[in-house]
Structure formats: C-alpha cells, structure tokens
Amino acid sequence: MKKLMMICVSIVMLSSVKASEPIQPIVAEKSINQAQAELGKKLYFDPRLSKSGFISCYSCHNLSMGGTDNLKTSIGHNWHQGPINAPTVLNSSFNIAQFWDGRAKDLQEQAGGPIANPGEMAFTHELAVHLLGTIPAYVNEFKQAFGTEKIDIDKVTKAIAEFEKTLTTPNSRFDQWLLGNKSAISQTELEGYQLFKNSGCVACHNGPAVGANSFQKMGLVKPYQTDNQAEGRIAVTGKDSDRFVFKVPTLRNVELTYPYFHDGGAETLAEAVDIMGQLQLGRKFTATENAKIVAFLKTLTGEQPKFMLPILPPSSYHTPRPQPFK
Asked: If we measure between CA atoms, which residue out of 254, 251, 290 comes closest to residue 274?
C-alpha cells in the first residue's frame, strides 16, 4: 500500500512539470532485477576481471567522483594512455547508445568492451568466464541470479548492466524546481537556465539526461582544435558526414565530471561553456553570462548513488592469479 501511494505521488508530481520545459526530471529505473544487480555490483568492482588484477569498471568510472575518473583520458593496463575521455556511468541508461561514438547499442554491449580491450583491462571474455567459474561463491550467485550455474559472458555483461541501471541521480535542485519548488534555485541560476534555453543549448541538451539522446557534430560553426585522434561516428558508420560527430554528453552532475569533451580538452565548466558557445552557437558569452550558465549547470547535480560496498568472494586455489607486470 505504501509503495502504491509513493508511485501515485510521483505521478502527480511529474504531471505538474511544465510541458513547455525541454528538460524533464530524472526518474529512477523501476524494472531492476535485484539479484542480477547485486551480482553486477560485485563484478563492477572486481579487479580480477583484468589481466593485472588491479583494474575494474570502477577504475575509470569512480562512483565517488561523478562516475568518471577526472582524467583527460583514462589509464589502462601497463599504464596505457586511453584514447578518449571516460564518460560518466551515472544515468548512462538514458544514453541513446554507449561510448562517445555510439558503437555499443546498450549498457550490456558496452560492459564487455573494456574487459577484452588490450589497452584497458587486457583480459579476454573466455578468461573472465573461466576465472569466475573457479570462485564457488560466484557460481552460486550466478545460479541465484540466472537460474543456472553455467557462466558465460552474456550473463556477466547483463549483470553489470543491470547494476549500472541503478546508478541514477534524481532530486537535483533543478529537478525540484521543475516539480514546483521555485525556491530550489536562485535568481542567478534561473537566469542561467533562461540563457541556456534562449541561446539554443537545449537543441542538443534536453530530456531527462539533459543530453545523451542524439549525435551531433563537434564544431558546427567553426572547427574544434584538438590533438586527439578520435573522429567520432565515422569509425562506426564509415560515412564521411559522421566525421567529428559524437554522442551529446549528459549534463547531469556535470560539475563533477571534469575535464570536458571527448578529449578532456576543457578543464573547467566556464571554459567548456565558452568553447561550446563559440563552436556550436557562434556566440561569445560575456563573463557574466558565462557565470550564470555555469551556476545553472551546477543545479543539475543530483543525489549520488548510495550503497554498501560489496565484499568480493575470495579466489579458490584454482583461480588464475593476476599478472600485473606483463
């Protein structure tokens, strides 16, 4: 009865959101398989899925740091320099696709990539599955979550994806404002939002994730200057028209997810706003306008995921040992 009442209250609150606003409140995912999510949580934190026994999903998507690593590009196996900035895992279930170039259609497909990437976790899917099968507690948890002791990479990635679906950040101050609490943001922040709307930022940054729902060219008005070799969607489609077309990043929790852009080229929000204004809108914001937009963007920081850190099951005598220096 209590759960039904909470759902009804949520529906009433959401119905009060102004239909004219291009941004909608974050709503937590409801269709979660709890057994799979709990298993996925352990796999997300488990560095044994890497060759070194040191790198996990958490390494590049630190949930204490906005779901990213705050580096221009991430560090992989044997101190390999990653080719691109690690996007946040927070609210990633809202993404139109995964990775900057959208090469993975969903969270499950994305989850298998880093494990087998020689520059990231440097393992193989076969080795990961074999390793998990040598840990009795994992075998039991896979049986509880999937109804079978048979472990395969599909179940591994499905569990990780199910956990990542729980990593939403509702109830930001801006969401509270959208839901009718007009004192949730200041006058300066409201003016920043009006600038954000009226300048055209919402053409790409809209919806619950304030972005992440389309692919757009980086440098519409003038080219973006970077030494980074990533060229965007062309790597997936092979179409020259997709050169420098990237997935629009979510702006949720953006004050936590610096540095910005696919190459980590903007160190601060103020710098990112200035560059986006000139490259995408053909507009040079004044210092006052920039500060107001930055103030608005900081209202998009929501409640961060909170849970007990998982205690990982111990390896058995048969579990392959890590090779951190090979």
From this structure: 290
User: What is the pLDDT, as a whole number, of residue 192?
Assistant: 98
Look up the pTM and report it. 0.93
- Helix (H) / strand (E) element for 247: namely strand 245-247
Lookup result for tokens 């610096």: 258
3-state DSSP call for residue 92?
Answer: helix
Burial 162-181 (b: 16+ CB within 10 A, else e): bbbbbbbbeebbbbbbbbee
Average per-residue pLDDT for the chain: 94
SS3 321: coil
Tokens, residue 73: 């590009």
Question: Cα dihedral sign for 52, 102, 92, 294?
Answer: positive
* Digit-coded pLDDT (tens) for 6-48: 444 444 444 455 558 999 999 988 899 999 999 999 999 999 9
Residue pLDDT, tens place only, 129-174 = 999 999 999 999 999 999 998 999 999 999 999 999 999 999 999 9
Query: Do 26 and 170 contact (CB within 8 A), yes or no?
Result: yes
Q: What is the pLDDT of residues 205-260, one digit of tens each?
A: 999 999 999 999 999 999 999 999 999 999 999 999 999 999 999 999 999 999 99
Alpha-carbon distance of 247 to 216, in angstroms, equals 6
Please pick, among 120, 164, 189, 289, the residue that the annotation labels catalytic. Answer: 120
Q: Does residue 120 have an active-site annotation?
A: yes
Domains of the chain, CATH where assigned:
34-164 (1.10.760.10), 173-298 (1.10.760.10)
Whether 313 contacts 267, CB under 8 Å: no
Q: How would you classify residue 79: left for phi > 0, otherwise alpha for psi between -120 and 50, otherwise beta?
A: left
Q: Is 3 helix (H, G, I), strand (E, B) or coil?
A: helix
